[in-house]
Structure formats: structure tokens, C-alpha cells
């Protein structure tokens, strides 16, 4: 249209619709076109975008939006799709500045990044905002933007506790559950890796507090039921599940397996951390891997009844033996599927303990991958429902989303 003509927003209702049916509303929005005749040519590339395709990487494309005077956005350009890459380089394209921002150099321009899907259900990777004035600076240097993607606001904290009691056997002997076999993982490492590699994707910082219990520590032989596997009591965090495994193997070389098998110190240790968070922004999961009968059952029951912060996952290691029946009965007493755990006349408010006997998941064909997948599935099965019950019991609504980021780089040349 010629400059100077102003159009107002109008509402047009379909006059000849289907009786008794709502046929919708057509809304026309318009604004005065500027005199700007500039044409912009730009090219964009991205770095380290999110992987969205299960079997491949991503097939990213960009959608540009012009912001309107009423705060809404209108699509003004789409790029081509670049197949199977997390570091795409799109072809240069030309667009009238009037189409991009109606000649207003400081008006917001929004860019969405999508992963293309054949059926049209494109996955959202992220977005960033800019302006034509900012884009223009790309003539002399790269402009760098952070691609933001809204995520849920719940932080999952994953803690590991490993049984270092003497009943596991000498780690240097093949009969030990802690046997340090150079060719394959022992039962503890398998259980830790199976559950940890699934749950780590839900822990944003990938820092996992890891403890051992039931060992004598150097140099004075003091017995501990909550020692940091990495040797640093002030900062027991290990980087990733691989970091937990490294600290576990290092502890086997330095501590003396002893006893008894006390659960409550580690449970209370996690409870102290959880007590600092009262707004429902975090949920705690404790994985305990053990081989024997709990020595402090009374204290453990008390600790569980006091727990409201999350879930306790117990994996019972070992093979069938004369004590197996009593061990399993003891553990299932803590798993409140049938009867809620009680202590001193008080009952746990939720069923927060999940007990799984490791031997039930050893694949007879020797397929460790299959065994680990089945174990992780059953150990983690109850967490989603229990997390929701925790939030609902406290009237906690989903929190505002938190941004994550990758980078997207582009340069622009104005003609």
C-alpha cells in the first residue's frame, strides 16, 4: 500500500455459518507501511544445537517473526532445512527491511529454531530475539546470540550410597561383589551405571553427591557410614556417573571394608540437604546399593518416616544364599507397597522406598545391556507418580520455566 494509509484492526464474523456451530472469527490486523526501501541480505549458522532425532542429529531450520504494534508476532521468513546436523549453515537470503520490521530499526525481531519432521510436528529447539539495528552490526563482525529453550523449573538431585561392609567379600577376590575385574563391571558398578545413566539426564548440573557406608577410613581406621567417595567431605559431588564410578573404584583401593550395615546416616545426610529447600523447586532421589541385612532398622524406619523430600531406591546385590530370604523380607518391610513404613506409631506419609533385588535382573544369556535396561526400568518406575504426589500434597504448582542455552552465530550484509 502507499505510505500514509492507515488500517485499523477489524473483526469479520462469518454470516452464513452452520446453524448451532461456532465458525470462528477472522481478525485482520494492519499498520501504516514505512517509506523504508532497504533490502537486507543475511546468512546464519549455528553451533551445538540440541539433538532432537532419536536415530540422527537434528534437521534445523529458522523462522523469522516481525513484531506487531499490538505485541503479537507475524512470520516473515523461513529458511531451508539443513539435514542431520547440530552445526548448520543456512544459505544466504534477502528480505525487505519493511517486511522484517516495517523500517523501525529498533523493533523486536524474533527467530525460532526448529527441528524439521516429515509429518509436520516440528520440534522446538529454541529462540532468540534481536533487532534490525543489531543485525546490521553483522556487516563488520559476527553477531552471537544465545538460543533459549524454556524448560520445566524442577531440579532433580541424585545421590548415591554404596555398601562397603566386609560381608561383600575382599575386592581382590573373584567371589567378592566388589571384585575389581579389569574386563567387566562388578555388580555394584552395573547397578550404579544402569540407574545413573538414565536419571542423570534429569539432573541439570550432572554433579552427584556419592557416599559409602560401613568402612574404616585411613589414616586412623575410623568407621564411617557416610564418607564421601571422592575423599572430600566438604564437597562430595562427582562429575557425572563416570565420576561416581571413578571415585567408587578409588575408595575400594583406600578404605577397609568393615561394618555394620547402617542406612540411617546417609538418609539423614540427604535429608539435611533437602531441608534447605522448602519451595518445591527441587526433588531428591537417593540410590542405595547394598548386600546385606540392615543393622539399624529402628533408626532407618525413623529416618524414612521423617522423609518427605523424595525417593529412596534400594538395590539389593548378591546371589541366592541361606540369608537371602530374611534379607529380602527385611528390605520389603521398608518398601511400602503393601504396608506403609511406621516408627513409634507414626506412618510415612507416602510410599517413598523402592526395593529391587539385583539377582532378579541378571540375564541368563549374559547380556549385560539387557539386564541393566530392565533393572533401571523397574528401579525408576515409581518416581514420576511419587514426585507428583509430593507436589500435590503441598499444593505446589509447576514453576516458571528456566532457560537453557546453546549458541547461534550469524552475520549480515546490508545492500
UniProtKB/TrEMBL annotation:
GO cellular component: plasma membrane
Keywords: Calcium, Metal-binding, Repeat
Gene3D superfamilies named in the record: C2 domain
Biological-process GO terms, alphabetical: cellular response to calcium ion
Pfam families (UniProt xref): C2 (PF00168), Copine (PF07002)
Signal peptide region: none
Transmembrane portions of the chain: none
Protein name per Swiss-Prot or TrEMBL: Copine family member 9
Organism the protein comes from: Erpetoichthys calabaricus (Rope fish)
Phylogenetic lineage: Eukaryota, Metazoa, Chordata, Craniata, Vertebrata
Amino acid at each position: 500500500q502507499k505510505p500514509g494509509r492507515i488500517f485499523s484492526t477489524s473483526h469479520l464474523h462469518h454470516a452464513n455459518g452452520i446453524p448451532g456451530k461456532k465458525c470462528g472469527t477472522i481478525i485482520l490486523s494492519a499498520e501504516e507501511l514505512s517509506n523504508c526501501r532497504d533490502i537486507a541480505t543475511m546468512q546464519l549458522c549455528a553451533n551445538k544445537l540440541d539433538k532432537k532425532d532419536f536415530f540422527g542429529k537434528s534437521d534445523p531450520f529458522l523462522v523469522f517473526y516481525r513484531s506487531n504494534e499490538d505485541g503479537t508476532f507475524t512470520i516473515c521468513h523461513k529458511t531451508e532445512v539443513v539435514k542431520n546436523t547440530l552445526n548448520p549453515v543456512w544459505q544466504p537470503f534477502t528480505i525487505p527491511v519493511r517486511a522484517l520490521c516495517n523500517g523501525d530499526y529498533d523493533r523486536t525481531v524474533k527467530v525460532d529454531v526448529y527441528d524439521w519432521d516429515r509429518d509436520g510436528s516440528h520440534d522446538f529447539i529454541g529462540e532468540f530475539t534481536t533487532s534490525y539495528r543489531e543485525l546490521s552490526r553483522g556487516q563488520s563482525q559476527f553477531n552471537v546470540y544465545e538460543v533459549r529453550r524454556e524448560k520445566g523449573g524442577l531440579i532433580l538431585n541424585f545421590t548415591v550410597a554404596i555398601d562397603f561392609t566386609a560381608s561383600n567379600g575382599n575386592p581382590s577376590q573373584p567371589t567378592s561383589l566388589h571384585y575389581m575385574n579389569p574386563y567387566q563391571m562388578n555388580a555394584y558398578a552395573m547397578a550404579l551405571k544402569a540407574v545413573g545413566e538414565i536419571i542423570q539426564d534429569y539432573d541439570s548440573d550432572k554433579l552427584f553427591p556419592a557416599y559409602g557406608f560401613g568402612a574404616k577410613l585411613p589414616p586412623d581406621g575410623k568407621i564411617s557410614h557416610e564418607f564421601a567417595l571422592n575423599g572430600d567431605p566438604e564437597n562430595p559431588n562427582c562429575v557425572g556417573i563416570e565420576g561416581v564410578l571413578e571415585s567408587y573404584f578409588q575408595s575400594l583401593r583406600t578404605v577397609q571394608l568393615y561394618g555394620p550395615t547402617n542406612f540411617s546416616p546417609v538418609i539423614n545426610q540427604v535429608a539435611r540437604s533437602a531441608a534447605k529447600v522448602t519451595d518445591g523447586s527441587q526433588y531428591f532421589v537417593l540410590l542405595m546399593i547394598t548386600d546385606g541385612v540392615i543393622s539399624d532398622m529402628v533408626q532407618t524406619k525413623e529416618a524414612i518416616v521423617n522423609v518427605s523430600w523424595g525417593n529412596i531406591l534400594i538395590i539389593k546385590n548378591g546371589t541366592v544364599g541361606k540369608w537371602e530370604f530374611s534379607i529380602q523380607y527385611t528390605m520389603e518391610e521398608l518398601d511400602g507397597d503393601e504396608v506403609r513404613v511406621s516408627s513409634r506409631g507414626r506412618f510415612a506419609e507416602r510410599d517413598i522406598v523402592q526395593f529391587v533385588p539385583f539377582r532378579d535382573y541378571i540375564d541368563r544369556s549374559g547380556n549385560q545391556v539387557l539386564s541393566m535396561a530392565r533393572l533401571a526400568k523397574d528401579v525408576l518406575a515409581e518416581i514420576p507418580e511419587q514426585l507428583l504426589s509430593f507436589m500435590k500434597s503441598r499444593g505446589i504448582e509447576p514453576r516458571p520455566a528456566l532457560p537453557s542455552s546453546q549458541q547461534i552465530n550469524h552475520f549480515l550484509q546490508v545492500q
